[in-house]
Amino acid sequence: MDFDDQAGLDTSQVDDRRGVSGGGLAVGGGALGVVGLLVALFFGFSPGGGTSGGGAPAATGSVRQDCRSGADADARTDCRVVGVVNSVQDFWSSEFAGQGRDYSPARTALFTGQTQSACGPATTDVGPFYCPGDKEVYLDLGFFDELTSRFGAKGGPFAEAYVVAHEYGHHVQDLLGTMDKVGGDQQGADSASVKLELQADCYAGVWANHAASTPDRSTGRPLIDKLTPADISDALNAAAAVGDDRIQQRAQGRVDPDSWTHGSAAQRDQWFTTGYRSGRPAACDTFG
Length: 288
Description:
43% of the residues lie in helices and 10% in strands. The protein is of the alpha/beta class. The chain has one domain.
């Protein structure tokens, strides 16, 4: 994956909370609970809609100061996240406009260790998630290391981009009202939770199809100017690495489909591929 070196990055879409206190949350506290934690783990969304503080102050940190161009996105992980967020939201904004809809941007909060969200505590252990309560994506960049060391993925810049695009798939679902289909159906191979996660994988694939052709609003040229088959392979590898079956087999030596929340490795690979090959959100009807 290569960014247009001359393109500008819009850092207003990223809330850099690294180094900011987590807001006084007690260790182990928060509103997610056991079920919410299971849903949020491994590229999820937090179903909580509470008002537990909803946002530590933005840091003046390095994203705002140092992430200015596509060249910075090629050089630094945090700047790359900014670039991917910009690209993903440019695509969905254009896609919504083509359907006569308004797309409301969502910010990504970068944090270290712990911070607050409107859905409860965001912690390193919970992993990346989207909170519909404040319409924000929460990400500790240390998760990218865990993706390789804990889950066995190959990693790479586009594997990281897949993680971000998946979370924005949940934002799209929130805007379209798809999240309302989950309700209490949060576990099991055929549950609405699994279908929601697989659709977010598919939406990530749809963005990947258009990533190198969606024009940046500041330059009129695509922010990402090159994707390779190796990039797509890294994304597919990451999707499969966090399949419920692989995680369960690694953690407990057996697979229990009745407790799945995100789908199998094969399903996650399949639905990202469906989105990527079709390039159409309509192809992502996992509920059909």
